[in-house]
Design goal:
The complex is a heterodimer of chains A (382) and B (391). Chain A has 382 residues and is mainly α. Chain A contains 15 helices and 5 strands. Chain A has a 4-stranded mixed beta sheet with strand order 2-1-3-4, covered by helices on one side. Chain B is α/β, with parallel strands linked by helices. Chain B contains 17 helices and 5 strands. In chain B, helix 9 runs antiparallel to helix 11, helix 9 packs antiparallel against helix 13 and helix 12 packs antiparallel against helix 16. The two termini of chain B are 25 Å apart. The chains are: A mainly alpha (382), B alpha/beta (391).
Chain lengths: 382, 391
Amino acid sequence: MIVFKTFLKVVNKSKIPIILYTVILVFFSGFNTVTNDNSTSFVATKPDILIINQDEEEGITKNLIGYIGKNSNIKTIENEKEKIEDALFYRDVNYIIYIPKNFRKDFLNFKNPTIEIKSTGDYQASLAELLLERYLKVANSYHTIIEDEDALLEKIDDTLEVETKVEITSKLDTSALDKATMYYNFTNYCILAGSIYVICLVLSTFKEEKIRKRTIVSSMSHKKHNRYLLYSNGLFALVLWLFYVVLSFLVVGDIMFSMHGLFYILNSFLFMVCALTIAFLIGNFLIDKNAINGLVNVIALGSSFLCGAFVPPEYLPDTVLKIAHVLPSYWFINTNQTIKEIEVFNVDSIRPIIINFSILLLFSIIFILITNWISYRKRKIG
Amino acid sequence: MFFHNFKYTFKVLFKNKMLIFWTFAFPIILGTFFNMAFSDIENSEKLDIIPIAIVSNESFESNSVLKETFRYLSDEDSEAQLFSTKYTNEEEAKSLLEEGDISGYLIIVDTPKVVVSTNGINETIFKSVVDEVNQNSQLIGAIAKENIEKELKNNPSINPEAIYKNAIELVQKEKANIKNISSSNLSYTMIEFYTLIAMACLYGGILGTVAINQSLANMSSTGKRVSVSPTKKRNIIFSSVLAGYLTQLIGLVLLFLYTIFVLKVDYGTHFPEIVVLSLLGSLAGLSLGIVVACLIKSNEDLKVGIMISVTMLGCFLSGMMGITMKYIVDKNIPIVNKINPVNMITDGFYSLYYYDTFDRFYGNIIGLFLFSALCISISIWSIRRQKYDSI
């Protein structure tokens, strides 16, 4: 009990960083709350467009704005140069359309006025450009045969209303699964950082020479002491994991009550075990208490960046992902990504997941073996 | 005495492994991670070739407009290539879609229909192109009809096929008159590296904290000995701080060299302005470190902890953990980032990179200067004429 009490005291000291990791986790996964909630009918992706209209909003100008507005999210931003430029840089808008003064008059007089645009160059912007180009082409083409503005607008509307039928096959709630995957990918950082930080702190506290000498001369047997220490650390990791699982039900929602949810939880449990063994390994060869902070940051941040906990793995360069294969985090995150894609759970579809689980377990065993070997060689005190 | 203290503070700082890790090594390590994680992200956001399939049944073969359009848009030698298209039967198209090999397929039964597995940008673009083809057929039809009617009034013997062909040409030739005037410096991941430099500037403040602690009588035994020595306090403090500043600048130069030559970060072309910004940014970090050292009466660990947390909070607000954060704060609560030294440095680099004018840059420079001046004044005011009867 005395070991456990001391353990709790040390854990209590490190509550601030753990709260911090958790806040960042909730913040990041809560960030993506604006998603479509059904996927059984097709919903077109809409780019964010800003229209700066220097013409009067009438006739063809109004019609153009209406068409763009129907097919995109129109953003309103104060008409100040700096604010507009910032909005483009930070991708608040993907595309800015400057409708020039006298656009309507010039258009009707066959002057083919130039429309200036600013674009972020990403796929949303490409989609926006597609919309604008299409409108202008259709308008120009009709204008060659129709002079009257009202008739022209009617024809344009008629043509642009033509839409293709779309059938959507997947019945998966992709947005909820995306969110769950993002959440669990991010726990990679929290679980790693949390468990390494606390367990290293505890182990190094118990390893301080004075304390260690006192422990050795105490009536408690060495084995018992070590066992308690192991239990306490295991309990801590379990509590940390449970906490993140409970939190996932709150943040992610209903999807956690499905088979998908079960696999996410199972996967994170295995990763927690692996993180525990990593923490033991580091705690065993770490001598300087001051180094813990640096080490935690390098290991947790490093494997999170390399394996795709922060940036989705599909955005990472291939070479980085190849290197990441040697890290347990890669297999954890890879499993999360696989779970997201599964439509029906059967032996075939969960085979890759089982393989990843085994790899995680293998990592854990390797870490335990190395830890034993190191601690065996370091038994003696000065 | 000035030089003596300067030299020894310099040595003490350089031999402190934890300090050197946080101020020299950590920013470089973090920069490497950023580079690995973000180097591809902007490219992945550009439009890729979209894999699709088309069910080549009779209706498709007879629809020349659709056929031509997809042949043109799938041409590997053309710059306009948008799709890589497989022509196949319905069964295979279905299985390709299930396997995730294609984004969707097109099948014509009476009217064209697009089949996709999920919502998404590729799917939207695919649908959009099919839309456009249909709209164009309608457009061509309408124009041809109008022209035929017009011609018929003058000349009863006309060639409808030629008119139809003309209409197709007209529609195809039509170009939207759009001019792209966006700046070429639009790479938002640069912000990550700017916050990194800003973080290094502020972490340099820890050096200031440690250096000042060396000469405060209530902090360390070295401080006690220094305080009873017959030397002007001004000299002691100033030389310690200068040693801290110099150490910090060495770290910053290393970071700059690493980010420029290894990570290929683009700082823009205004070299003198970058130097001024870095010097002032480091000064702001240093003054923050000094004010923390002077005002907080506690052990060194707590002071360093405060410096690290304040810096991390500042980094968070200026976009290190998510670039959007900087924009949200700038847009909604600008005052927070106006007084956040990390953001002043980040924003300074950003304005040099993105803006043609210097107004915003000078705003940041003035902000950093005022911040440093304020911190230093508070520090001087708090430690001048300090005396201890017993300690």
